[in-house]
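Record now logged underneath.
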Amino acid sequence: MYINPREVAADAFMEIIYEGAYNNEAVKRYLKRNGAMDKRDKALVTEIVNGTLRNLIFIDHVINCFSNTKTEKMKPWILTCLRQGAYQILFMDRVPQSAACNEAVKLAEGRGFKSLKGFVNGVLRSISRQKDDIPMPDKDKESSKYISVKYSFPEWIVKMWIAMYGMERTESICAASLKAPELSITCNTLKIRPDELYERLEGEGMEVYKSDYFDDAFIIKKTDDIAKSESFLNGYFHIQDESSLLAAKILDAKKGDRVADVCAAPGGKSFSVAQRMENEGYVLSGDVYEHKAQLIKDGAQRLGIKIIDAVVRDAAETDGEKDFDKVLVDAPCSGLGLVRKKPDIKLTKTGEDIDALIGIQRDILKASAQLVKKGGELVYSTCTICKKENTGNRKWFMENFDFQPVDITEYIPEGMECETAKDGYIELLPDKHGTDGFFIAKFIKKGE
């Protein structure tokens, strides 16, 4: 029985847009549900869903240029057919434009919209004919609107970044955030040397590149399902972005330390910290959800890590624990640094969400400050690009708690050097560093 990958993509997309499902979870679920599809069709589903989400604001702008009925007035299924058809026409050169139009028409007709198949065909044919001459907002007169449409970022985010970085850098960040991210992994040095892992992965048919920043990290390409690889199952590595690995290195936990990772799931930083501690000491890895704590336990077992205690705990509450040498607070945040991986984030987050998150972040920092012993250190990190959540919280923390910044220059690898490292913090940007957007700040608790 033939499974139409474009129909699978449309169903997944509908669930993401109209039911609020997370894109990575929805895609994974639909691929599993339609497991009989071959690899190429599965890849097509993933690209259509994620590509349409990444470019949604631009796609809607294009549709509205060629349709008398505007997108907000369209039936959800018809709009989905148009959006995904437009994505293929505008961004997928290997897909014949006639095929993109015809398949969208079939999808519309197949769901009972026979009367609208001419409308779908007409709009997509118009886009196909004029795709190299799309009217755009004036870049000089409407700069934020231009960037918003061209790079598919809500205008409130664009305006926030222009205020932080200026026009040129904002455009660069938005452009970089449209690119699909590379897969980064961290070698489990408790089991294998990085050079040995490199050879093993190549032997398994993967395309492997050494990280530009770290000896124990690699970029992987051309792999179908890395979680099914022999090296993964043997616990020779875990999946982790280079920005996240840097946070673990800046924490600089030593063998025998007591460490708390208070917002630990899915566990990558805890794993890297435990490896640096050579599996000696104690790492408390907390998450508020049982199933996420279990993910950490499962990962630690696969990697052969014995010092991680994965527990269900609310990072914003104090529970009597104290006297930790190191505390890592990778706080829940707006996630605007993860848009390459999770393009739905930019479409769902609002300024009000950020204001609410700042309250949560500060509650977690307040509780975490009590965990640190005098002379101990705390690292605060986020995966967002937002001044209020990053440098704003850093300033607030130092003003309200007995901590001072720690110079982190020694931990910054070649290629990531920045002036702010001596002041105890670094900001990573996708256009500048090729990583997730990330913020890391380090403090020491005053006292002996």
User: Anything to note?
Assistant: The CA atoms of residues 15 and 21 lie 6 Å apart.
